[in-house]
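Solute carrier family 22 member 13
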Amino acid sequence: MPKGGNLVKEVRIEPDRPSCAGPYCKVLHCSMGELWRYSRKRTVMFGYVAFIVLGLVTAWLPLLSLILVARFCLGALDAFCCYSSLILLMEVLEPKRRTLAAFGIYTVWGVSVMLYGGLGYFIRDWRILQTAATLPGLLILPALWVIDESPLWLIVNGRPQEALQVFGKVARWHGVDLPPEAEMKKLVEEQAAEAQNTTPKRSSMGSLS
């Protein structure tokens, strides 16, 4: 395949069976649910690192077959990053701020898609466009190593002491005092018991909100 120019011009590509998009998305989203039990923080880190690396690699693949496989994986990782980030936010924010946070995530995504179209007007070589659109993602990498694990995930998975440490760190950042340690432990134990009686995938912090 010759390098440079438009991918559609480099090889004849026509849409086939667009009706498969809906079932594909449902299967993809359901299958990713099992991955989230391996830690919210690690899931977010894996998703963004893999997305950025694969985005840069895709731009310079020589074969159409490899490009299609890479683009398929990028599509999966795009949803993976959005959902994992959203779940982490829902579990660490107080209820009154969750709607705004969810709105913000998808607003940024929508604006980015529009900007990508504008960028494509000025950069006509699809390989350079792919690289230019992926490079800003490197700015998020340092933040991935400083975010904390979800306290709710820690509680549900039998790590209450680590959850208390996260609560203490957040309290110091905001300059507020937590309730006495005994009361915090009681709240954590109540939340853990409630989670055991319902489901470990709940995003509500219950009495800790």
